[in-house]
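Below is a filled-in request sheet from our internal design queue. Each sheet records the structural input a requester submitted and the sequence that came back. We keep these sheets so that new team members can see what a complete request looks like end to end.

REQUESTER: design group, bay 2
PRIORITY: normal
MODE: inverse folding
CHAIN LENGTH: 402
BACKBONE (tokenized):
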């Protein structure tokens, strides 16, 4: 329990953390990695180089200061971040390191403004917040390892198949190398793949949504080949160009708080852009396997038909479901395309026309796409608690992404 004095001091720092937060977190990561380079084997280097991780941490620190007397407000964020931490292998022993370098960064960036009283208050507050994360993640590690077919950190899987789904996306099928059972997971969750790329000093970790329904004897991820430039394309290009059938990789157990509520019978809308189709495939395959009678709307936006992954498979599933409809949006309509319901961007008017107002909406895709779609759904009167969305990498502020 924090003292009222500590709460008051921490809350008083919120305005400066809002203004200087990214300066602090940028300094923090630079100093921490210099002292503990082994942590580079855990963090996503692309998110570091693009500044997304620094921004995400700055937002979290600011929120902690603002709501230090209402920590229950932070529970959804703690849950989301803890899933990512568990999937990457962040452990309790890492938190004291983070705390040490975060406090140093606050002091060094803010200078004399960060008095001993402020640093002491933040040290106390960090201890309380770190314990919440540690306890939450300990429960997640137990759940991952104790489930049927589960394990604690990373486990070897063999590439059972590699299938081209479109001009941009290829699927990889993984089976446990030891022949054990594939654990259950919730449709929409992701795994982390650990890659040892020749020439790279550090391990490369990437999180990919599972693109098949649970209950199979394999995991499937479907990976978009990014442009041949650093840092975003490092993992995807290696997977596309060098990981083949028979190769062995290391995977984490499934994680994530973005998933289909399979017990709810309310109308459901699955809305994706580009490679954001991957968790939606897991959800749609799950609904198809259940022969669901729910009202289902499946909407996918792609550059064109060549870049549209799973198009025949989704059409077939939608056709077989009793109350399902599908719609396709392409950047530009051409005579060669056999399917295209929307040319260009998906509008609020279109979404209002095809999605029932009582639907639960799941959204995944590039950040600008999600920002626009979520804004449209809100404009159309869909309540916030019925709009679910997933980010690839650290969460960012959607209002600034539209």
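RETURNED SEQUENCE:
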């Amino acid at each position: 329990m924090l003292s009222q004095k500590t709460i008051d001091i921490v809350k008083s720092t919120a305005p400066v953390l809002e203004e200087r937060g990214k300066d602090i977190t940028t300094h923090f990561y630079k100093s921490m990695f210099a002292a503990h380079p082994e942590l580079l084997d855990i963090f996503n280097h692309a998110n570091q180089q693009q500044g997304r991780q620094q921004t995400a941490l700055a937002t979290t620190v600011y929120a902690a200061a603002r709501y230090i007397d209402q920590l229950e407000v932070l529970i959804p964020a703690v849950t989301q971040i803890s899933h990512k931490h568990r999937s990457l292998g962040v452990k309790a022993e890492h938190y004291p390191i983070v705390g040490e370098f975060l406090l140093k960064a606050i002091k060094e960036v803010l200078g004399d403004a960060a008095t001993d009283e402020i640093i002491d208050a933040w040290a106390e507050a960090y201890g309380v917040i770190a314990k919440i994360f540690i306890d939450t993640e300990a429960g997640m590690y137990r759940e991952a390892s104790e489930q049927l077919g589960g394990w604690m950190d990373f486990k070897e899987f063999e590439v059972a198949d590699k299938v081209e789904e479109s001009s941009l996306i290829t699927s990889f099928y993984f089976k446990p190398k030891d022949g054990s059972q594939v654990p259950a997971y919730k449709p929409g969750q992701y795994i982390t793949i650990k890659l040892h790329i020749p020439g790279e000093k550090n391990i490369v970790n990437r999180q990919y949504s599972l693109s098949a329904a649970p209950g199979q004897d394999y995991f499937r991820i479907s990976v978009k080949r990014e442009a041949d430039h650093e840092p975003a394309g490092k993992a995807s290009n290696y997977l596309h160009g060098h990981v083949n059938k028979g190769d062995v990789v290391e995977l984490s157990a499934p994680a994530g708080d973005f998933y289909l509520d399979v017990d709810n019978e309310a109308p459901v809308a699955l809305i994706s852009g580009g490679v954001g189709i991957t968790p939606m495939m897991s959800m749609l395959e799950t609904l198809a396997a259940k022969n669901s009678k729910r009202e289902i709307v499946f909407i996918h936006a792609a550059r064109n038909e060549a870049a549209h992954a799973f198009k025949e498979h989704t059409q077939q599933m939608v056709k077989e479901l009793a109350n399902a409809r599908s719609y396709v949006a392409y950047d530009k309509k051409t005579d060669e395309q056999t399917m295209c319901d929307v040319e260009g961007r998906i509008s609020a008017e279109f979404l209002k026309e095809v999605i029932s107002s009582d639907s639960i909406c799941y959204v995944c895709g590039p950040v600008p796409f999600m920002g626009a779609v979520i804004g449209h759904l809100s404009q159309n009167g869909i309540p916030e608690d019925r709009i679910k969305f997933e980010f690839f990498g650290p969460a960012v502020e959607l209002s600034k992404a539209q």
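SHEET NOTES:
- The chain has twelve helices and twelve strands.
- The radius of gyration is 22 Å.
FILED BY: M.R.
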